[in-house]
Amino acid sequence: MEKSDEPFSSKGMKQKQLSINRIMVLVEQIGQRIQQEDDEERKWLIQHCRDPLLCSLLPEMTVAELHVVDAIGKLEPVNGITISKHSGIPKGTVSKITRRLIHKKLLQSESLLNNKKEILFRMTPLGEKLFILHQQLHIEIEKGATAFLNRYSEEELSLLSRILQDTLTTSWVTLDEE
To answer: Which phi and psi angles does 173 have, rounded to 5°?
Structure first.
């Protein structure tokens, strides 16, 4: 048997470590690419926006604001706790974002008659335009992702799916137990 055929040979282990190092670099680069795509998405929204007032608001919109708009558009009327659960954004942050969106005239709030503490949010007509535009963006992203993934065989997609599922359920931080 040749040394290169052995799975635990030093040559095999060195090659595996090089592959792991390359994957770690690529994962970091993917994270950076995702951050850059926020700008690409904003540019797409501005290019496809037909309302001048909405177009003037888009350059300053944050991704979190868009996620809150998306949650409200799907669930309205909805309270801050439900928005937080749906979007994964902390309640305090949702509260700040909804205030900004109300100020931008994208949302309106209302209190329940029997519970003044409970505030529900709804889209304004301008907010509804943003919600629809954001939905159109996600349709384009899904088309692009599907075209990208269609390059790969079913076996490759199955492996990628397994790797991504494992990634979701694995902590990469090992804590020493005392």
So the answer is: -105, 120
Nearest to 98 by CA among 132, 115, 116, 123: 123
Rounded-to-integer distance, Cα 80 and Cα 70, Å: 13
Domain that holds residue 62: 49-166
Instruction: For Cα atoms 48, 109, 60, give the angle at the middle one, nearest 5 degrees.
Output: 35
For the stretch 22-70, pLDDT in tens is 988 988 888 888 877 778 888 999 999 999 999 999 999 998 999 999 9
Residue 110 lies in a domain: yes
Bridge partners for 119 per DSSP: 111
What is the C-alpha to C-alpha distance for residues 60 and 29, in angstroms, rounded to an integer? 25
The residues facing 78 across adjacent strands are 121
Whole-model pTM: value is 0.80
